[in-house]
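=== RUN LOG ===
request id: a7f3
mode: sequence -> structure
chains: 1
length: 137
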Amino acid sequence: MDFPEKTTVKDHTITIIPRYCETDQAGVVHHTVYPIWFEMGRTELLRANGVAYKKLEQAGIFFVVAHLSVKYRRPALYDEPLELTTTATNVTAARVEHNYELKHAKTRILLAQGSSILACVDNNGKPQRIPQFMYTE
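=== RESULT ===
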């Protein structure tokens, strides 16, 4: 597989507009949606580095979530544009760590923060080293 020599983009921002199906009857985004958005952020951060997650899988490289935390600060609401910034904070031989900040796109008010730790495994679920190109230092 052709992968970049090294990842260079450490953070990436995507726009999210909450859909009706992601909210409760009051139009507030349900708490279970945030981890899905975080995954979207990680996927797009990889893409910004020239790597499609699908290509990693085809090469037998998979990432599983070992830890996930979310701090809900204010509600995100239906149809209000949001900005999610995903930052790769640490990459070691065994794991990749990310931080997330979700802000209201217009007011810039912080709505949620999060973090995750991903472990690298092969297609049998056995731990393996993270590909060299993903090391940020």
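=== NOTES ===
The chain has a mean pLDDT of 95.
The radius of gyration is 16 Å.
=== END ===
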